[in-house]
Design goal:
The complex is a heterodimer of chains A (457) and B (633).
Chain A: H1 2-23, H2 28-45, E1 50-55, E2 58-61, E3 64-65, H3 67-72, H4 74-82, E4 87-90, H5 96-106, E5 119-121, H6 137-157, H7 165-180, H8 182-188, H9 197-216, H10 220-231, H11 242-245, H12 253-259, H13 262-273, H14 280-287, H15 322-336, H16 348-358, H17 365-375, E6 383-386, E7 391-394, E8 407-411, E9 417-423, E10 431-435, H18 437-440, H19 446-455
Antiparallel strand pairs in A: 1-2, 1-4, 2-3, 4-5, 6-7, 6-10, 7-8, 8-9
Helix pairs in contact in A: 1-2, 1-5, 2-5, 6-7, 6-9, 7-8, 7-9, 7-10, 8-9, 9-10, 9-15, 9-17, 10-14, 10-15, 13-14, 15-16, 16-17
Chain B: H1 4-13, H2 31-54, H3 62-71, E1 79-84, E2 87-90, E3 93-94, H4 101-111, E4 114-119, H5 125-136, H6 148-155, E5 160-164, H7 165-176, H8 180-188, H9 198-215, H10 221-234, H11 237-249, H12 254-262, H13 265-274, H14 280-293, H15 301-304, H16 306-311, H17 314-317, H18 323-334, H19 339-357, H20 360-379, H21 383-395, H22 400-413, H23 416-425, H24 434-443, H25 445-454, H26 458-474, H27 477-481, H28 488-499, H29 507-513, H30 519-532, H31 534-544, H32 550-559, H33 567-577, H34 582-594, H35 598-608, H36 616-632
Antiparallel strand pairs in B: 1-2, 1-4, 2-3, 4-5
Helix pairs in contact in B: 2-3, 2-4, 5-6, 9-10, 9-11, 13-14, 19-20, 19-21, 20-21, 20-22, 20-23, 21-24, 24-26, 25-26, 26-28, 28-29, 28-30, 29-30, 30-31, 30-32, 31-32, 31-33, 32-34, 33-34, 34-36, 35-36
Chain lengths: 457, 633
């Protein structure tokens, strides 16, 4: 399972480089990270030299592309490239001291990249023809949507003309993906990248919202609008200063004031870009922080008094648009399960509990229940420790609370990490603990690459 | 931490100079190389300090500029050197320097309570001057003045870092003497801070780095907090528990609150089970505060319990998840799908909010977009949607400034083809939705007037004039302002529209149009004016008796038929004295005959008198006058 080990290696290396840059080498905390990295490097190399190569922003281990690691560590990979490193060859056993030189290089402290020892830099690069690149359409769709969001954000920042036509196409692709293989789509939505949180979060929210939209019976046209709203709901954050978005604690009143601008900024950008018939996408951006009970922000004039001039969809209709209420639940779920600047990630069941706690106040209770119905009690991607000691990853919803939950065993009862996950269904009563991917050392979305659609069946 | 300044130099000790990388092999830079670079930095500081003390404004001096440039190129930022009374130190070693000013600078900084100074990024000349000004302040004379850090912050010198002795002492004292938490920590770890105990080192390092970042304006704070949070989970469990208890005990201190905030509910739940009973209530209280910060309910106790979460399964919290319930839920949501009309209604309501919240620049952008959407709907022939967008513009312009913005944007959006479509599609103004009429009236009259000027089709011209007439009843100003337009045909239409608006403030403009160079305008204006102002209309008609165009003189006679003013007879007399054409003379006589005034009678008597050798026209006049008099008798 090279994605997992490579991800662990990159995480440890990034942390070690940061600690090195903050307060030098030979620090106990740096040493801890370097030891972790050496362990992951040895597991990755499996006794043979392994080469990590970055080509066109994607990471390859030997000849195999690692799409998930490429996505989730894109920021660190760029940092590596910025320091002139295009490949890292690991010759087991990998020594901590050699990794220390690598992290010093990445921290800008090493005069010369290492070319000998157990870690060698820039030895050789794979020619394009040598790459063994799986063309997984789900991953490609996810990446393409991320690229689209990056482009749209840049255009919004530069106040350039933005077109929503590409967003429409991207949402259509994701929508098909959700229809074709809902379990795989839900697993894909567990992709996280803290450094590009907003973009990953937006794509995940889009996928999750589409899943609820399909369950709610929206037609195709409405689903596209819904998906666009979910995809672009946070686009206004491009106008918020990074110091506020990255503040690692509670926000000051001034910071709150700034952050509260993003719904209207996003709605403005979307409204300006929308073609006739697409304007409802701006509604989602505007309303996504307005709560079901009328609190939240911004202050929506029509919450108390629906607009008379246009005619509301029905007397019983809630002032918040249905698309907003659908998006808000998916938004909340992905936010709680993601690492934020101010909080570590929580487990999926915990996130469901948060949604349930907020049903009727923050969230539309019907939508919360529909969402849980889609996700199941144990959402795909959930990592659980069973009473027997096994660590399992939920691969698809059970469909019925009383039926066994389909899962894959990642770590066996003896604590051994399995190179190939094994199917293992469990009953809810067997669950001993919930784990975050970070704590379990497992990236749920990797299952897609390793097992393919069949693996999650 | 026994030597705070040694800590401050650790970061600066490791970088190697870029130029030395190619020569020094794979090892890190030698201490000698590091010292050489540090010496260059200190030399530059000394040079800058000297010029600061010699010149009132050292910034133009070459030496100062070179020094600033050198200070901008250390091996890495932040670059920080320790300040001792004897000089600067780097990596615990004294920095050799050739500049005597370096020692005066360090003494001054030391006396000011500065333990370390450096730069978070290349310093600007102004920032460097701020640093020197702060250092130059005498401590004794500024007892009430802020400390160096605060003084520097007040001056806005963002690139400069200084660390005060006081702050380092405070950290040290807190650890050694203050508070039960510290005492508890010390009792658990009686050894010195440098003992290698990971939890102790963790706290020390975190506090110090936090202080350093704070002094430098907090760049990289998130990275610091995240890395320390991640490292926390890499520590042995017993160390985690001791550290976490420290975090909780110090939760009111900003650095530790930042760490605590990082823990998710799952983390808190897991740690909560491991904590001592005395600490656990603090955790519950903290989790409650954290949950409330996120808008959740204050009942955090259940959030903290993994067991409860596992036992109280999600499915148990839901209504019975049977097929019937599922269908009911689906039906409930499906019933709320708004459809295109609902989507549109929501979008216009949202646009209302967006406009109301927008700042000045945003308002212009959104107003432009909404104006474009209004006209796009017109182009599609969907006047109802156009009216809805128009309503957004109308309701979102409460102030004069914003109205002006809307006017500008609507004018830009009302291109000729849109107006053409508008007035063609609606078959005259009768079909225009009232909102759209209001919008066009308030913000679109100029483009419509231009459209009228360019329009050749008579039918459309009539519909445009008809619209302008109704618009002028509300807002005649734009029409009045255009009465000076050089295009006679436009002025004539505007006069017509104004005349039927009934707005008396248009009378002066129309009165002026009675003197328009083009007779067609004069004719229209004289015809229109009485509708707005009868007296002015009569006066204009009397003037019209002297118009150079015979046809207009005849028109004037006709207009005066029922005018009561005595000036009419005088005007007619003047007309008759000017030897007008036979037709005018007869018309004048007819008018006189119709008027029952003494002046008219006298004038008729004069015209009826026989004159020898009169021309035929005169004879016709006399005959008519006599007949008129006979009729009177």
């Amino acid at each position: 399972m090279r994605e997992g080990e490579t991800g662990a290696l990159l995480t440890a290396l990034r942390r070690a480089a940061t600690l090195h840059r903050l307060y030098g080498s030979h620090h106990p905390l740096t040493d801890i990270s370097l030891t972790e990295a050496a362990r992951a490097a040895d597991v990755l190399a499996e006794g043979e030299p392994a080469q990590l190569t970055i080509i066109d922003g994607s990471l390859y281990v030997n000849r195999a592309l690692l799409p998930m690691a490429s996505l989730s560590h894109s920021g660190f990979l760029q940092t590596i490239l910025d320091h002139g490193v295009t490949s890292v060859t690991l010759v087991p056993p990998v020594r901590v001291e050699d990794l220390a030189v690598l992290t010093a290089t990445l921290a800008g402290d090493s005069p010369e990249p290492p070319t000998a020892g157990s870690v060698r830099l820039n030895e050789d690069n794979l020619a394009p023809a040598q790459r063994d690149e799986p063309r997984d359409e789900r991953r490609m769709a996810y990446t393409a949507t991320l690229d689209l969001l990056r482009a749209v954000s840049l255009a919004v920042v530069r106040r350039e003309q933005v077109s929503l036509s590409e967003a429409t196409a991207a949402v259509r692709t994701l929508m098909d993906l959700c229809l074709d293989d809902p379990a795989a789509a839900l697993l894909l939505s567990t992709m996280k990248n803290h450094h590009e949180y907003t973009f990953f979060h937006s794509v995940n929210t889009c996928i999750l919202t589409l899943m609820i939209g399909q369950a709610a019976g929206l037609d195709r046209d409405d689903q596209i609008l819904l998906g666009m709203g979910a995809l672009l709901h946070d686009i206004g954050k491009v106008g918020i200063s990074p110091s506020v978005l990255q503040h690692p604690g509670r926000l000051t009143p001034e910071m709150w004031k700034e952050i509260k601008q993003h719904p209207q900024m996003g709605a403005e950008a979307v409204l300006l870009a929308s073609e006739p018939g697409q304007e409802v996408v701006a509604v989602v951006a505007l309303e996504h922080h307005a709560r079901y009970d009328g609190s939240g922000y911004p202050n929506l004039l029509y919450f108390e008094e629906p607009p008379a001039h246009t005619g509301s969809p029905g007397a019983a209709a809630h002032p918040l648009h249905l698309f907003t209420r659908l998006t808000a639940v998916a938004d909340g779920y992905d936010a709680v399960t993601s690492r934020r600047a101010y909080r570590r990630a929580a487990t999926p069941p915990r996130a469901l509990r948060v949604l349930l706690d907020g049903a009727g106040t923050m969230y539309d209770p019907d939508v919360v229940h529909a969402f849980i119905d889609v996700m199941g009690e144990f959402p795909p991607g959930s990592l659980l420790r069973l009473r027997g000691g096994e660590t399992v990853l939920v691969s698809r919803p059970a469909g019925d609370p009383d039926r066994p939950v389909p899962a894959l065993m990642m770590i066996d009862a003896a604590g051994r990490r399995l190179s190939q996950p094994e199917p293992l269904s469990f009953h809810p009563g067997e669950v001993a603990a919930y784990l975050t991917p970070e704590r379990a050392g497992v990236t749920p979305a990797l299952i897609l690459e390793h097992a393919g659609p069949a693996g999650v069946d | 931490m026994s030597d705070a300044t040694a800590m401050t130099t650790r970061r600066a000790a490791t970088p190697a100079p870029p130029e030395s990388r190619s020569n020094s092999g794979p090892e890190v830079a030698s201490p000698a190389a590091v010292d050489t670079l540090a010496a260059a930095m200190v030399d530059a500081l000394a040079v800058a300090w000297t010029t600061y003390r010699v010149y009132a404004d050292p910034r133009p001096q070459d030496a100062f500029r070179r020094a600033v440039a050198t200070l901008g190129t250390p091996p890495g930022f932040p670059w920080i050197a320790a300040v001792h009374s004897s000089g600067f130190r780097f990596d615990g070693r004294p920095i050799p320097t050739r500049r005597q000013a370096a020692s005066t600078l360090t003494r001054a900084a030391f006396a000011r309570g500065i333990a370390a100074l450096g730069f978070s990024s290349p310093p600007t000349p102004d920032d460097l001057l701020c640093l020197f000004e702060v250092i130059s302040q005498r401590q004794g004379s500024t007892a009430e003045a802020p400390g160096p850090t605060a003084a520097l912050a007040a001056k806005g010198a963002a690139t400069v870092i200084i660390i005060e002795h006081g702050r380092l002492r405070q950290v040290s004292e807190e650890r050694g003497h203050d508070g039960t938490a510290d005492a508890a920590e010390d009792s658990a770890h009686p050894s010195d801070a440098q003992s290698g105990d990971p939890a102790r080192r963790y706290l020390d390092e975190y506090r110090l780095l936090y202080e350093r970042l704070r002094a430098g304006g907090l760049p990289g704070l998130q990275e610091l907090v995240h890395d320390f949070t991640d490292c926390f989970f890499a520590l042995p469990r017993d160390q985690q528990i001791r550290l976490f208890e420290q975090f909780l005990a110090r939760h009111e201190e900003e650095p530790f609150r930042l760490l605590l905030d990082q823990f998710s509910q799952d983390d808190l739940a897991e740690l909560g089970r491991l904590l001592s009973p005395g600490t656990h209530p603090l955790l519950v209280e903290y989790a409650r505060i954290a949950a409330e910060q996120e808008g959740q309910s204050g009942d955090a106790a259940h959030m903290l319990s993994v067991e409860q979460l596992v036992a109280g399964r999600i499915s148990g919290l839901l209504p019975s998840a049977g097929e019937a319930v599922r269908r009911q839920l689906g039906d409930a949501l499906r019933a709320q799908i708004p459809g295109p009309e609902g989507n549109f209604a929501a979008a216009t309501a949202a646009a209302d909010v967006i406009l109301s919240l927008a700042n000045e620049a945003g308002y212009i952008r959104v107003a432009r977009a909404v104006a474009a959407k209004t006209t796009a709907a017109v182009a599609e022939g969907d006047l109802r949607r156009a009216a809805a967008w128009g309503h957004v513009l109308l309701s979102g312009a409460p102030s004069r400034e914003r109205k002006e913005v809307v006017r500008r944007e609507v004018e830009d959006a009302l291109r000729p083809e849109i107006l053409d479509r508008l007035f063609t599609a609606t078959e005259l103004t009768a079909d225009l939705p009232p909102t759209l009429v209001t919008l066009l009236t308030l913000f679109g009259l100029d483009p419509i007037i231009e459209c009228l000027a360019a329009e050749e089709d008579m039918g459309r011209r009539r519909s445009l004039v008809s619209f302008l007439t109704s618009a002028a009843r509300t807002r005649p100003g734009p029409l009045i302002r255009r009465l000076n337009d050089p295009r006679w045909f436009l002025v004539r239409n505007l006069v017509d529209a104004l005349a039927h608006s009934g707005r008396t403030e248009a009378a002066a403009g129309v009165r002026a149009a009675c003197s328009h160079p083009d007779s067609r305008v004069r004719r229209e204006a004289r015809r229109a004016l009485p509708l707005l102002d009868e007296a002015a209309g009569t006066a204009a008609a009397i003037e019209g008796l002297q118009d150079r165009e015979p046809g207009l003189r005849l028109q004037a006679i006709g207009l005066l038929r029922t005018a009561p003013a005595p000036d009419v007879e005088r005007g007619l007399a003047a007309l008759l004295a000017s030897r007008p054409a036979r037709e005018e003379r007869l018309a004048a006589v007819t008018l006189l005959a119709a008027r029952r005034t003494q002046e008219a009678h006298t004038l008729l008597l004069r015209l009826a008198r026989r004159r020898p050798f009169a021309r035929r026209a005169r004879r016709d006049t006399r005959r008519a006058a006599r007949e008129a008099l006979a009729g009177r008798s």
